[in-house]
Amino acid sequence: MTTPVAETSQGGAAAGAFCDQCGRPADGAEHPRCTARRELEPPRYCPDCARRMVVQVTPVGWTARCSRHGERSSAG
Amino acid sequence: MAHSRTVTTTQSDILSTARTQVLEKGKGLSESQVLEVLRLPDDALDELLELAHEVRMRWCGPEVEVEGIISLKTGGCPEDCHFCSQSGLFASPVRSAWLDIPMLVEAAKQTAKTGATEFCIVAAVRGPDERLMTQVAAGIAAIRDEIDINIACSLGMLTSEQVEALAAMGVHRYNHNLETARSHFPNVVTTHTWEERWETLRMVREAGMEVCCGGIVGMGESLEQRAEFAAQLAALEPDEVPLNFLNPRPGTPFGELEPMAGPDALRTVAAFRLALPRTILRFAGGREITLGDLGARQGLLGGINAVIVGNYLTTLGRPAESDIDLLGELQMPIKALNDTL
Ligand code: SF4
Ligand SMILES: [Zn+2]
Ligand SMILES: [Zn+2]
Q1: ipTM, interface predicted TM-score of the complex
Q2: Which residues from A are below 8 Å from B when comparing CB atoms?
Q3: pTM of the full predicted structure?
Q4: Domains and CATH numbers, chain B
């Protein structure tokens, strides 16, 4: 099981092995605060490796870059 | 004026005083009067919001100023503002990032597309260094080449040379928040003083730029201190006051504070409008957290006459279209660019 993906957090940012909000393992665990937060928050941690990503928010979207796994964005 | 509900004598006292003093004469409420407003019970809230709305319509008009903001330099700030996820001193997940000029221009375009007339360039710094001033100058020139929009900046504390340089670049408004009441400031920031912030604001005004100065409510201040803050802002006479509600950021000293209750947030909006009848009062960050989706409407009908559309610096907002649609529905025209020149 993975953490649910909110509408505002596209591109599978939340659908990995780690929670993109707190960086802890996502396996089966519920992260209620993270789920609530995700609606108004870009991803912070890489869902593949839990590294902190470099995030840039713009008026209409965001991009998030992991040094290992590359860039994701709100555009998908 | 007929009151829609029965209120006790003291309540109707402050509201009828405000009606004469603020609505009719345009004179803002004093600190002690703001405190009375902040103490009004929930059942007087509708009447208060209606009055604040009338004051805004009478002294500012129906137009709403729409602004977009962008973070040019994110994170890694040496200051310790306890609410801020961009301080390098806390274990916040926000990492340092610089925006390049093409992305900055793109963000300005996205902002202009919404109908916004203001684009504010923000950097998480104590004050600008040479690299940042150079980047800002290049960014402003590149935006001006392509887009017609007012450019504002928020780059922390300035030297007098930097104030002059920004004015010469054509920066139309400078944002620097006092954040909270002077008496509460040492509980919020320890790496610089309220007075240092005031000094930057004074120089900005002197250089002929518009002054934008507001803060964050819900940072553990008392109602007395909230009233004190409104009075201190009124004394500054800023062109714009952005009002934020604390959005507790993970890893910051204020990360575990409770977000303000909706009625308190709305009472604060109305009280600030009654203290500052002619100022552009902007809904800034945190409104989605405190007030939810209905917040934009309630605020715009309770004293607010400016909004930040789209996302914030490090967090996401409502989609710009939902705010723009709402303005249409409320028959509040977006302030046009030539009105502000
Ligand atoms: S100076 Fe600005 S960016 Fe730096 S910690 Fe304070 S609020 Fe955050
Ligand atoms: Zn989580
Ligand atoms: Zn990764």
Answers
A1: 0.84
A2: 8, 22-23, 39-42, 44-45, 52-62
A3: 0.91
A4: 56-340 (3.20.20.70)
